[in-house]
Amino acid sequence: MKKKPSADALQEPSAPRQLLRKTSHRLQSRWAEYMGAKTAHWNRKNKLLFLAAICIIGGGISTLEFINALHPSPVVHTAPAEAITPAPLYLPRLVPPPANDSAIWKKFHHLVDSLRTTPEGRERLQQYLDNHPGILDSIAYIEKGMH
What we know:
This protein is an all-alpha fold. It has helices at 7-10, 15-38, 44-70, 99-115, 119-131, 135-146. The protein is elongated and about 100 Å long. The protein starts with 6 loop residues before the first helix and ends with a helix. The relative contact order is 0.04.
């Protein structure tokens, strides 16, 4: 059955496409001439061996890439050599903090101070601080941001 040619097949390619086609053809011709000059003294057997070597190398590389795509190696994340401390989070202050926040911090400091008065309290406070490292620094940072 004969097919009717499409309207796109009858149109001439655009100017950039024609330029690309001509440039591609010119480069292919130059490469073929260069390779022809380099292999002009080869006999048929040498040309076939060269073709076989190129096919084996190209096929081997393609096969290796295909196998690697099927079984990707695990990505190993390494820690940076130097730890960079994160910049403090900037939160714009649109509304002043409520007065009861200050009262809550006062109660917290009163509780910590009262725990420090007895040996039993100091031990309990130390256990809490060991279980929550950096909490006092975080609280100091929050209080500093409030003022």
